[in-house]
Amino acid sequence: MAENTDDRLRLLIERVERLEEEKKGVSDDIRDVYNEAKAVGYDVKIMRQIVRLRKMKPDDRRELDLLLETYRSALGLD
Q1: Which InterPro entries match (predicted)?
Q2: CA angle 61-68-76, nearest 5°?
Q3: How many CB atoms lie within 10 A of CB 38?
Q4: What mean pLDDT is reported for the chain?
């Protein structure tokens, strides 16, 4: 039974290792896209913020916008 458990553990570890390698590859690809965008004049910081906003649910995004506006007003940043 221990050998079967050891095999299962080894297979799980190997899967995680493969996925980590794939994740690194995807991260490298994303970095390349941002570098390409920067090379043609886009503001990468703003692009990252837009990507983050697009991931949000519309209600969460509206709430964030409302809170930001409230804080800006309170601090006189209008």
Answers
A1: GapR-like_DNA-bd (IPR046367)
A2: 160
A3: 13
A4: 96
